[in-house]
Amino acid sequence: MSTTQLVVAALVIGYILGLWQPARRLTEWADRLVWQQPPVGRRSWRWWAAQPVYAVQILLLLVTQPVTTVQAWRTRNDPPPPRSPAPRIRSLKEEP
Length: 96
Known about the structure:
- The chain is elongated.
- The longest helix has 20 residues, at about 45-65.
- It is mostly helical and about 100 residues long.
- The termini are far apart.
- The mean pLDDT is about 85.
- The protein contains four helices and no strands.
């Protein structure tokens, strides 16, 4: 095969996979397993069936976008910022 044929074949395969979106379908399947009403816990087979899908997703994110993934993970677990003090309302009877 020539290089041109390989490039065209890769583009066609990428286009078909982009239309089919297997990763999105697999993710939606795992989410339906876990987050059906009522949500399931670790004792259910549905929870365990979805865990390999979630693990592969996290691994792919760490491989393809390591900095963004780690920053998002850290930001998600940060404590909320401190609240500002409550406003004070002065009475008309008080003098400044």
